[in-house]
Specification:
966 residues, mainly alpha, 66% helix
Length: 966
């Protein structure tokens, strides 16, 4: 035996350990995979030996190889063998490899149940601790069910090390086996008051994780957590408790009132930024939940905002981001408190971190008012000019539009300014992906705000002429700003009556250039609207020559679009040409004369005459064209189509025409016709395939020479290979002789640019100054008693500027339909979420407990029936003792409730609704007591009758078969 051990130790001297493996991998970086394959072969040989130390060394090397991404699932049995070693050093290596290799769905886990149970019940705390640590990584539902009792016993261990690990392990057991939550909850509750702070912290972590999804089940633990919060000095445990209270306050508003004071004390006293952030978050949640019942909480909000300002001004980027995140939560309920720090948030837009800039943009969305909207947008536009990065610039552009359009433009007072801002955004960001958003805004404002339609038409007409031609054919990957041309073409055609030079706009719409097909189709359709307006105007003036000229102009411009590759453009251009052709035909047919004769007879403007009258048919045709585009388009409700009522007698599921039979002769003909076309295409493809002949070597060489000659003669072809083959003298183009000039980078870059939208802000500031002067003069002329009233009116005038334009909020709906209520998007819980199974009501008894209570009731009934022959005096005394016990129990319960309420400071006097509920409960209890008293009296009377009857029968000598009562 000794020789065998010596031999095994001697062999181990030549084995590679983990350090040798790591050193070899570093030395073989070029052929790492090959080296690791050799090592795995050596490891397989080591795993076949009987020495457990050799296997342990092999498993440790496999663990490192698994970290590099290689599969070691083939060594599962060897890992289990090392796990079952009696040596702690080997056992630790085995559990480490198992935690990395095994997973809850591994089939080998069924072999580890008894081994893990043996380690959990070991006398050594380190064996049990290693087993708990490894089990937490690969525990399955079966292992949770089989080992739950063993882990629960470790929760009552005398060693704090095992109690802490067992408490933490129970959380993984709950996730895999939710039925263990109810029996383990009392022990888990006891660990909240454990003398060891590590066990206490572990219990707090487990309960906080359980309460994260379903906090209502843990509301009864609020007194214990409140005591821990006010007595503990562990910051990490305080963070968990405060998070839990933030989830519990919406369920119990009285709890929130009691939490304000200790949370504010923590905010004042703590120096830990993480704890400060959680306290502020919980204070915000508490104030939101009790906002209706506690109006005087402005001091707490101001304190939170001041502390958050310290976080935002900190140099640490993480703290700055968290401060902005918490500030956005306060903004939802107390916007005025955050608006006072507008300068600080605007300064965050110049931060280097893009995430902080985006968070500051989210804050600006809620800080906007009618007074500061123009100023904020001006700052954002100036920041957009200096910003770098396409994604951030796109987000900045979208945020500007979102800020202005929120609440149906409730903060926009001047829509001419807003249209100017949209045009400036188009000029600033020509390569943005939010072109469709700007186009939607242009259409929405032009339709809903009638007062600015003339201004919108002039802006869109100039945009059609100034929009860069090379930007119109960009694809969606590089940008979608060309979508604004869609809105510009539609607005110019729909509201063409406001155009100053409609003919120039018509020419710009029909200018031949590369445009997306849907934009080109809108151009043609709206150019027809514009032509109709111009023909109507010429008809009113009686100028037939102008009508003919416009028809010729339109026909010349639209004819090239008939051959477009897009069918929509073809259809619209063909329809427009047919309409113009109809008008030309009517103009030709005037008393049998030709068009040229008609035009020769029409006096020109040089003779002083206007023109002869247009034909009646042509005049009627122009008026018919005008009726096609008459009327205004109003915004339509999003669900208007769904609200259209079905006519009576209409069945949408019924066939309009009866379907043809399967064996009809027409179907055979259709099949034959279909075969004709398909067969012709197939035959043509087969013929082409048969005609192709593989070229010979000589033909390929000739083709190569011809291609080279073509490349040499092509001036647009880059001939890099030919230039490289030239000698060095011919390659030198004289570029090396050009001197290198230094650029003076110290010269500051000054950009003097004033935007058109700035004039509206300057006008508003001037009007504000005038209003302030008037209010000051009014104050001087009046008495001091009225100072408060004037100051309030001044603030109101500053906060609410005058609304220059009115937004039309009416939307069209079908007849007999009404707007539907807002649909609430309730996000259901994820079915794969493990916390869903833990939504267990811990106060409801389980099935086993109900069975036990039923058995106890049955035994009580049997005992009662057997004791019916007891004397009346004994029963009355027993009833008295029972009543006394009940009173004691009720007193104890009320005392416990009072203690819990006193601990949290809950007042008995709550709202009127609570008092009414309490009064109703007391009434119900009194009625129940009366009914119980009546039942007791009736049972006593029946018992007395039975006793008298039995005594009479015994005295008379009547024999009774049995005295047992069911």
């Amino acid at each position: 035996m000794a020789l065998k051990k010596v031999k095994g130790n001697f062999e181990r001297m030549f084995d590679k350990n983990l350090t040798d493996l790591v050193r070899g991998i570093r030395n073989n970086k070029d052929n790492e995979a090959k080296y690791i394959a050799q090592c795995i072969e050596e490891i397989k040989l080591e795993l076949r030996q009987d020495n457990i130390n050799v296997k342990c060394n092999a498993v440790s090397k496999l663990t490192y190889i698994q970290m590099l991404g290689y599969d070691i699932s083939w060594a599962g049995f060897n890992i289990i063998e090392v796990m079952s070693s009696p040596k702690f050093t080997c056992k630790r290596v085995g559990y480490l490899a198992a935690s990395q290799c095994f997973h809850p769905d591994s089939e080998l886990l069924m072999l580890t149940t008894n081994m893990v149970r043996k380690d959990l019940n070991s006398q050594s705390q380190y064996d049990a601790g290693v087993a708990l640590s490894g089990l937490s990584c690969f525990i399955s539902a079966d292992l949770s069910r089989d080992l739950a009792n063993d882990i629960m016993t470790l929760m009552s261990s005398t060693k704090p090390y095992l109690r802490m690990k067992a408490v933490l392990m129970m959380y993984k057991v709950f996730l895999r086996y939710p039925e263990a939550l109810k029996p383990a909850f009392p022990k888990l509750k006891e660990k909240l008051e454990d003398p060891d702070p590590g066990v206490q912290s572990a219990a707090v972590n487990v309960i906080c994780e359980l309460a994260r999804k379903n906090p209502k089940n843990y509301l009864s633990l609020a007194p214990i957590f409140f005591k821990l919060m006010t007595t503990s000095t562990n910051n990490w445990m305080l963070i968990k408790i405060i998070k839990l209270f933030g989830a519990l306050t919406p369920l119990e508003p009285r709890l929130g009132k009691k939490l304000i004071e200790p949370l504010t004390n923590l905010i004042h006293s703590t120096s830990a930024m993480s704890l400060l952030y959680e306290c502020i978050n919980t204070v915000i949640a508490v104030l939101i939940s009790i906002s209706s019942g506690m109006p005087n909480h402005s001091a707490s909000i101001q304190l939170c905002v001041q502390k958050l300002r310290i976080l935002i001004e900190d140099s640490d980027q993480n703290l700055k981001y968290l401060g902005l995140l918490a500030m956005s939560k306060i903004l939802k309920t107390h916007p005025k408190s955050v608006q006072a720090h507008k300068d600080l948030i605007l300064a965050c837009l110049d931060d280097k971190d893009e995430s902080i800039r985006l968070r500051a943009l989210d804050l600006l969305y809620g800080m906007v008012s009618k007074k500061n909207l123009m100023e904020i947008v001006k700052r954002l536009l100036g920041h957009m000019e200096r910003a770098e990065g396409s994604t951030y610039r796109d987000e900045l552009l979208f945020k500007v539009i979102e800020i202005c359009s929120q609440g149906s433009y409730q903060y926009v007072t001047n829509f001419e300014w807003y249209l100017t801002v949209l045009v400036e955004l188009i000029q600033l960001e020509a390569n943005s992906k939010h072109g469709s958003v700007i186009a939607t805004q242009l259409l929405d404002v032009a339709i809903r705000v009638q007062a600015v339609r003339e201004f919108a038409v002039t802006e869109m007409a100039s945009l059609l002429n100034t929009f860069p031609a090379n930007a119109a054919h960009w694809d969606a990957s590089s940008g979608t700003m060309n979508e604004v041309l869609y809105a510009a073409g539609w607005i110019v055609g729909e509201f063409s009556g406001f155009l100053v030079d409609p003919e120039d706009t018509l020419k710009s719409l029909l200018k031949p250039r590369q445009l997306p097909d849907h934009i080109q189709a809108v151009y043609i359709h709206n150019s027809l609207k514009l032509l109709t307006r111009m023909l109507t105007k010429a008809l009113e003036e009686g100028n037939t020559r102008e009508i003919v000229r416009l028809c010729n102009l339109f026909e010349d411009k639209v004819t090239p679009f008939v051959s477009s590759g897009n069918i929509e453009v073809q259809e619209r251009s063909s329809s427009a040409l047919i309409m113009i052709q109809m008008l030309r035909d009517e103009l030709k047919a005037v008393d049998g004369e030709t068009e040229r004769d008609l035009l020769d007879d029409i006096p020109g403007p040089e003779n002083g005459n206007v023109s002869m009258g247009t034909p009646i048919a042509a005049e009627q045709l122009i008026r018919d064209f005008a009726t096609l585009f008459a009327g205004d388009l109003n915004p339509v409700a999003p669900k208007a189509q769904k609200k259209v009522p079905l006519p009576e007698g209409l069945d949408l599921h019924k066939w309009i025409n009866t379907p043809p039979e399967l064996s009809s002769p027409s179907s055979e003909g259709e099949e034959e016709m279909g075969d004709l076309f398909v067969a012709s295409a197939e035959l043509q493809g087969r013929a082409e395939r048969k005609k192709y002949v593989e070229p010979t070597g000589e033909e390929l060489e000739k083709m190569r020479e011809a291609r080279k000659m073509e490349q040499n003669n092509n001036p647009h072809y880059l001939k890099g290979s030919i230039r490289d083959s030239l000698p060095m003298k011919m390659r030198n183009d004289g570029c090396d002789d050009i001197p290198i000039a230094e650029i003076a980078l110290d010269v500051p870059l000054t950009v003097h640019s004033t935007k058109r939208s700035d004039k509206y802000l300057m006008e508003e500031q001037k009007s504000d100054k005038k209003a302030k002067k008037k209010t000051k003069s009014g104050k001087k002329s009046h008495k001091s008693k009225h100072k408060i009233s004037y100051s309030t009116s001044e603030s109101d005038s500053e906060a609410e500027p005058k609304q220059l334009h009115v937004v039309n909020t009416l939307i069209e709906m079908p007849e007999g339909a009404s707007l539907s209520e807002a649909e609430e998007n309730d996000k259901a819980m994820d079915p794969n979420d493990p916390h869903r199974a833990l939504d267990i009501d811990l106060e409801v008894p389980s099935v086993k407990e109900e069975d036990e209570t039923q058995k106890k009731r049955e035994t009580k009934k049997v005992s009662k029936t057997s004791n019916l022959l007891v004397s009346h005096d004994d029963k009355t005394s027993a009833n008295a003792t029972k009543k006394a016990k009940k009173e004691k129990k009720s007193r104890k319960k009320s005392h416990k409730n009072d203690e819990s309420h006193d601990l949290l400071g809950f007042t008995r006097e709550s709202s009127q609704g609570d008092n009414e509920q309490n009064s109703e409960k007391t009434k119900r209890k009194k009625e129940g007591k009366k009914k119980k008293g009546d039942k007791d009296k009736s049972t006593e009377n029946s018992k007395k009758k039975l006793e008298l009857k039995l005594g009479y029968e015994e005295a008379a000598g009547i024999s009774t078969p049995s005295k047992e009562f069911a």
